[in-house]
Amino acid sequence: MLYVLDYGAGNIQSLANSLTRLGHSFEWVRSPEDLDKADRLIFPGVGSFGHAMEALARDGYAEPLRRYIASGRPYMGICIGMQVLFAESEENPGTKGLGVIPARVVRFSSQDSEGRRKAVPHMGWSRAVPLEFDQSNAPAVNLDDYYYYVHSYRVPYAADAADWAFATTQYGDERFVSVVQTGNVFATQFHPEKSGAAGLALLDAWIRHEQTAHVARQIVRDEPQGYTLPTRRIVACLDVRSNDDGDLVVTKGESYDVRDSGEGHVRNMGKPVELAERYFKEGADEIAFLNITSFRACPLRDQPMLELLHRAAATVFVPLTIGGGIRDTVDPDGTPHPALEVAHAYFRAGADKVSIGGDAVFAVEKLLERAAEAGRATHDPAQAPAEAVRGDSPMEQINAAYGAQAVVVSIDPRRVYCDEVPAEHAMSAASGPDEREGREGQPAKWWYRCTVKGGREDRDIDAVQLARGAARLGAGELMINSIDRDGSGRGFDTQLIDLVRGAVDIPVIASSGAGCAQHFADVFATRAATGGASIEAALAAGIFHRHEVAISDAKKAVQDSGLPVRLSH
């Protein structure tokens, strides 16, 4: 019988859905004794190395897991399930891994030897290039495709790793082991359960593989890729809310107004689950659900939204992000619910990442206040002293349990036109043609003010401050929206996006304003304003909902510009 080990962190529901889709039955490991019953074992998950090892030790799994692997029965590790096989990790010095493989896990660098910048985490679709051996007893897996990665730490590849390294991946100028195979152990750094048809095929091949004895092997062909970045990601976004009849619908507006100008009804663009499945089949690299009225209520009471996510995860095998309401809440009876509890409910329902909006703004404001209280006042949250970072923000809570890669911060800014940009907001200053009605094309200056509550409330913090503060507090990705460009079809606000990307070392999703396929190629183009960093992903909603632009057309435009995209799905 196939068993799946759930150590308590990450979207293990996606793996369960994948196994069900493939027709394989399985059992959950519910006690250490279950490992004695398993004929095959999969250990999936995300999060930190230390958190995983502590959980295994606390729940009594560490030694039984070592014994299981030593018994020769098939083991498959996914992401953290691969990293714990190693002796130790730079992520948590002093914490020992399972020690199955005598190597160390280290952090990616955000800058290579030639000064080129790249984001950390490594997030997106990359290739796993197999090594060629004189003989092998590995499963007959076809790695000639892109797979989904999301990790900040890697196992460096070395030429003497033939006994356990099976495939490698290149991120920038850093080459790392992305597939391990030694005897009965097979493990991937990427997430096959989130890698579309290619990932499902890999899972199926491993389950059907007949285990054979370990064979000594030699590498006969090893061809490194050279400098490589992941494909540029196209993200389909679904803004979800209740309509006036109480049904969950996908909607889309202009400048965040989702009601028709005539009768005032909420615009209904379709049913969320059906649209998500359509976008998966059409090749979306990720899908985001944004619960755009969640600031009004506690998400833990929003059972329709959790059910929606659960149903979507059963048919969509690419990453799912859920946004809205990820914050500390208190029930009417006084029962508190920390942001981590809300995130946990979303992850259990099938989300891979959670997006935090307004509470990220409040957390960065508090970070700046604490810096001032400590006598270290600054306008740059990244420069706040260590005593101002106290682990109590939603980003820090979720990062500690699930890792930075699970935390997205959504930034909702609008332009503030002015004669002179205030000194405290100089990091987000921009200039160029005025876009206001009646002043189009005139020279203008502005800065980007952040908002909360769906753009309804302005705050005295700018987009770059929020981006740098969010990264300081543990966010692993930023979604850069624009109230001014939302629904306009005029293209992404590249000045805003470049200001943010040039100021942080985490991945950025460009959002708001796409009106044609070329706009995707435009936002991914190399620009000096980013400091040499690339834009990792671009998101759209309305143009996909209304069939004005096909996802395949957006990808073709990006490919024609000379950048890699994932075409098979």
UniProtKB/TrEMBL annotation:
Pathway: Amino-acid biosynthesis; L-histidine biosynthesis; L-histidine from 5-phospho-alpha-D-ribose 1-diphosphate: step 5/9. Keywords: Amino-acid biosynthesis, Glutamine amidotransferase, Histidine biosynthesis, Hydrolase, Lyase. This is dCMP deaminase. GO terms for molecular function: dCMP deaminase activity; glutaminase activity; imidazoleglycerol-phosphate synthase activity; lyase activity. It catalyses: L-glutamine + H2O = L-glutamate + NH4(+); 5-[(5-phospho-1-deoxy-D-ribulos-1-ylimino)methylamino]-1-(5-phospho-beta-D-ribosyl)imidazole-4-carboxamide + L-glutamine = D-erythro-1-(imidazol-4-yl)glycerol 3-phosphate + 5-amino-1-(5-phospho-beta-D-ribosyl)imidazole-4-carboxamide + L-glutamate + H(+). Transmembrane segments: none annotated. Its EC number is 3.5.4.12. Residues 4-196 form the Glutamine amidotransferase domain.
